[in-house]
Design brief:
about 40% helix, metal-binding, about 325 residues, TIM Barrel, binds ligand PBG, eight-stranded parallel β-barrel, 11 helices, alpha/beta, two-stranded antiparallel sheet, magnesium, zinc ion binding, ALAD_AS, single chain, 12 strands
């Protein structure tokens, strides 16, 4: 008999296909990144991220309400820090009344059930644009981890549900967990960026926050001494297992599309939820190609989202979250 099996019977029409689809996307899959700036009435489009904006706190309230009404119930906060508040030690990151800390309170006041995660890294606060303190031409590890723990504590005190260290210094998850426990924030969780690669896909994000490493004669302009080498796979598993031992409740792979193998590998290895980050450069690439009419924006967006979930993501961090749920909500 030819052919032995007719697999095409399962693909006859959309009803049939949707009946047997292994992976489905819902609004619950998403974590929405939000960029916050000082000021009033500010909604600025990010040049390299079309249709993505930085909001001042007053307008952030409306945005959060919109997200909630779409069924998007978790946000990941980033702040753009004014230049005059930046220094090598990230002092402003610890200001209990800083922009991040106020943003957390504003969202909790506006939409108390919204789950708030916060980025914990020094780069937006650093005058040199690194995720740690720079001394003698090096990004020093242990002192940076101490500052990150203190920074995370101020986020917890302001009301953050989860803190998300995105720096890749060693031991920072442990330092954060210890300090949170010591200060009785036993329910504040940690989503650790455990497999974060030194990637050129972060370019547009660094425009969004004006956080790119600056030119210095004695310090490398890239982040390769702390973020991971993209030739490595086993190292990602090692990094992730260590972070779980140190107290990470959720682990993350970043970037997304070029690292789906890593995502699946980690999903198979660990018993905690795994997040993925479809980063700014991935967003920008799709936008640019769609603008030129070379790719179908919505179809590519849905296909990449599906790819993350199929590869094992329990949480998808994406600048497309709103656009995707508008389509799936109909
Ligand atoms: C900060 C941080 C970065 C991103 C998230 N947190 C930039 C970096 O590590 O250089 C990138 C996110 C994106 O590109 O969308 N440490």
């Amino acid at each position: 008999m030819f052919p032995l099996r007719r697999n095409r019977r399962l693909r006859t029409n959309e009803t049939m296909r949707s009946l047997i689809r292994e992976t489905n996307i819902t609004p619950n899959d998403f974590l929405v990144p939000l960029f916050v700036v000082e000021g009033k009435g500010v909604k600025e489009e990010i040049a390299s991220m079309p249709n993505y904006y930085r909001y001042s706190l007053d307008l952030l309230k409306n945005e959060v309400k919109t997200l909630w009404s779409l069924g998007l119930k978790s946000v990941l906060l980033f702040v753009k820090v004014p230049d005059n508040l930046k220094d090598n030690k990230g002092t402003e990151a610890l200001n209990p009344n800083g922009l991040m800390q106020r943003a957390i309170k504003t969202i909790k006041d506006t939409c108390p059930e919204m789950l708030i995660m916060t980025d914990v890294a020094l780069d937006p606060y650093s005058s040199v644009g690194h995720d740690g303190i720079v001394k003698n031409g090096m990004i020093i590890n242990d002192e940076s981890a101490e500052v990150l723990a203190k920074m995370a504590l101020t986020h917890a005190q302001a009301g953050a549900d989860f803190v998300a260290p995105s720096d890749m210094n060693d031991g920072r998850t442990l330092k954060i967990r210890e300090l949170l426990e010591q200060e009785s924030f036993i329910n504040t969780g940690i989503m650790a960026y455990t497999a974060k690669y030194a990637s050129s896909f972060y370019g547009p994000f660094r425009d969004a926050l004006d956080s790119a490493p600056v030119d210095m004669t004695d310090v490398p302009k890239d982040k390769k001494t702390y973020q991971m080498d993209f030739g490595n796979r086993i190292e990602a598993v090692r990094e992730t297992l260590i972070d779980i031992e140190e107290g990470a409740d959720i682990v993350m792979v970043k970037p997304g599309l070029s690292y789906l193998d890593i995502l699946r590998e980690i999903k198979n290895e660990v018993d905690v939820p795994v997040a993925v980050y479809q980063v700014s450069g991935e967003y920008a690439m799709i936008k640019a190609a769609a603008e030129k009419g070379w790719l179908n924006h919505d179809q590519i967006m849905l296909e990449t989202t599906m790819a993350f979930k199929r590869a094992g993501a329990d949480i998808i961090t994406s600048y497309f979250a709103k656009d995707v749920v508008k389509i799936i909500n109909g």
